Amino acid sequence: MNILIKSATIIDSKSEFHNTTQDLLIENGVITKISKSIKNPKNYEEIKLDNLHISQGWFDSSVSFGEPGYEERETIENGLKTAAYSGFTSVAVNANTNPIIDSNSNITFLNSKANNNAVNLLPIGALTTGSKGEYLAELFDMSTAGAVAFYDYKKPISNPNLMKIALQYASNFDGLVCSFPQENKISGQGVMNENITSTRLGLKGIPALAEELQVARDLFLLEYTGGKLHIPTISTETSVDLIREAKKKKLDVTCSVAIHNLYFTDDVLTDFDTNYKVLPPLRTQTDIDALIEAVKDGTIDMVTTDHNPIDIEEKKIEFDHANYGSIGLESAFGALQSIFTTKKTIDVLTKGKARFSVEQSPINEGSSANMTLFNPDTKYTFSKKDMVSRSKNSIFENETLKGKAYGIISNNQVVLNS
């Protein structure tokens, strides 16, 4: 792959060309020259795009597809295409398939399906066999096959001793344990945030306490065992406070927040639109304010789309019975830019790489070309025509967003969506 990128504004704090507009020459997948103006005597393909900006490739720490088992929701091939069009060069893929990804051979299968793709697929293995929460899965074997973390997607580990053993065992090979922050005995049959809105709508609520108890428990266990813990998709003010205190104690803990939990309050549920049914549920403005501040000060380490395609048969039904989840890759950049500056948006879209063992490649001469191309100023109403996913269950449908990805350059390939 040999290309010449013309007049691109570089947003990369680790690059000596940060905040400057440059031409970039890429030969055989390596950035060979960065300069204000580069001629093209070898007639390489040129990329010239309106208001072109580039950054290090974006990373998402929680993406679900469907394959194997739920291909009607999403395939790996189309899921990775969706990621590329949305600006992501690496995605960590959850184990919520059929069968559950809980063995060396399952991890090998995922890797084989993503071979030679522009997007790096990083498999997350199940923490317990079949994600049933009873016995630890083959963590070390999955690690040797390429698993970057271990997580029973959206399924809390109810047995604290099992979580204790998981943290102790995984620390032997520097494994990253993820724990969904919900205590099911508290959340019960709840389907949305427990608040005045749930009372008004007559829907059973999930108290903030259900999340906070689990976060507190896992942090106590981490303090006892050591090891590495990642808490995905926190959603409450108190969860932020608990993790902030744990970091002051130098515990090895990171956390993420789903982009939609930074954007919507539970007030949007007044029409019982199941696209807004997500887990953890949408909370209050007080929670959102605390979450946004925690992203800004670094208490929350990364944002995630928590991309979860759900087919129409499981969404277009009564709210109580609808499945949780929303697609989010396609809307991620535009939604974040509605909340943060471009610089902060890029920071939170790349910051989680180190935690999930993703190689970072600053935009400098001699570096491998792993970058996202985007226009930060495009304003548009997000609609089904913007959705590349097979499933169209987007929480951001009809929202006015700011900023669009053009695509990516990664693994010696160019993938543009226009």
The parts where pLDDT drops under 50 for at least 5 residues are none
**Reported CATH architecture of the largest domain:** Alpha-Beta Barrel
The sequence of SSEs as H and E is: EEEEEEHEHEHEHEHEHEHEHEHHEHHEEE
Give the radius of gyration: 21 Å
Secondary structural class: alpha/beta
Shape: globular
Average pLDDT reading: 97
Number of domains: 2
Largest sheet, in brief, is: 8 strands, mixed
CATH H level, superfamily name of the largest domain: Metal-dependent hydrolases
Tell me the quaternary state: single chain
State the helical fraction.
25-40%
Distance between the termini: 19 Å
Description:
This protein is of the alpha/beta class and 418 residues long. The protein folds into two domains: 2-53 and 364-378 and 401-416, Urease, subunit C, domain 1 (Roll), CATH 2.30.40.10; 56-356, TIM Barrel (Alpha-Beta Barrel), CATH 3.20.20.140. The chain has helices at residues 76-85, 104-113, 139-145, 160-170, 184-187, 196-201, 208-225, 237-248, 259-263, 285-297, 332-336, 342-350; strands at residues 2-10, 21-27, 30-35, 45-47, 53-56, 58-63, 88-93, 120-125, 149-150, 176-178, 192-193, 205-206, 228-231, 253-258, 302-304, 371-381, 400-410, 413-416. Strands 1, 2, 3, 4, 5, 16, 17 and 18 form an eight-stranded mixed β-sheet that branches. The protein has a four-stranded parallel β-sheet with strand order 6-7-8-9. β8 (120-125), α3 and β9 (149-150) form a beta-alpha-beta unit. The longest helix has 18 residues, at 208-225. The two termini are 19 Å apart. The model has no long low-confidence stretch (mean pLDDT 97).
